[in-house]
Amino acid sequence: MSDRLFRSSLDSLVDKIALVTGAGSGIGRSVALALAREGCRLVLAGRRPGPLERVADEVRAHDRDALPVVCDVGSPTDVDGLRTSARQAGVVQILVNSAGIAPAASFLEMEDALLEEVLRVNFKGTYYCCKRFLEPMIAAGWGRIINIASTTAKAAYPHTAAYTASKHAVLGLTRVMALETARKGVTVNAICPGYTDTELTRDNARRMASRIGGSAAAALDRFAGTSPQGRLIAADEVADLAVLLASPAGAAVTGQGIHVDGGAFMG
Ligand SMILES: NC(=O)c1ccc[n+]([C@@H]2O[C@H](COP(=O)([O-])OP(=O)(O)OC[C@H]3O[C@@H](n4cnc5c(N)ncnc54)[C@H](OP(=O)(O)O)[C@@H]3O)[C@@H](O)[C@H]2O)c1
Question: Which of 122, 246, 250, 266 has the fewest CB atoms found within 10 Å of its own CB?
């Protein structure tokens, strides 16, 4: 695709309303700002108002509207409220599910409550948002759903049973939804990042250091070393792919789990 065609494809994102969950930090924040740069108006969801307000200010600095909405995506009632609030902005045609948690525990040590909370936020949160925002996209004849999964949607690492199960479930949901919307103008994809340079990864590094010894910096180096590129992924690199999938240039891409992981996973 020529630069000119790609640019005009991005231009058609201007004034589209995008809802990003987990928008207060990390990948969600980067996606929200990348979509704002392409002209989208943003609805920003997360639990803590402070980070959402700060990202809303950053979006407005791009001369784009931003509506921060406090919402626990694992609560169907909260997501109903999010839908009501988002209607003030208009019809959400781009939904990016980035809200997520990643507590680590060995399978034997894992409490039932941990499994329930991870599935509630990572899987059910994605499901509730998809469920409440898909129909208006179909009615509009155009929509994009982008679920931030993980390489653990297709692979497994120790001490991540709940997280890995939740991300496999997100990818399964993505694939089924893609089939059911394929002729309705909507695409549904998952992005599968490797270790990304965000607070979630830094938290995991601190936890690993306290569990097995050594420093958090050494744990981060170990994470980076799992990638053939020998580095962490930048949240902006995940955001750039989300913008491509959201644009008309991504129209034929649906039902995919696309890795952004420096070549860590192939297949
Ligand atoms: N970092 C990585 O290496 C990596 C790799 C692969 C995939 N991912 C995925 O990428 C996504 C974003 O993670 P990140 O790395 O950007 O970490 P992050 O900075 O911790 O972002 C996670 C966001 O989710 C929000 N959140 C958590 N629980 C929520 C809930 N119940 N309802 C609404 N919002 C909630 C958090 O804000 P509040 O606490 O204010 O709600 C936070 O802004 C996650 O789904 C994660 O699984 C991350």
Answer: 266
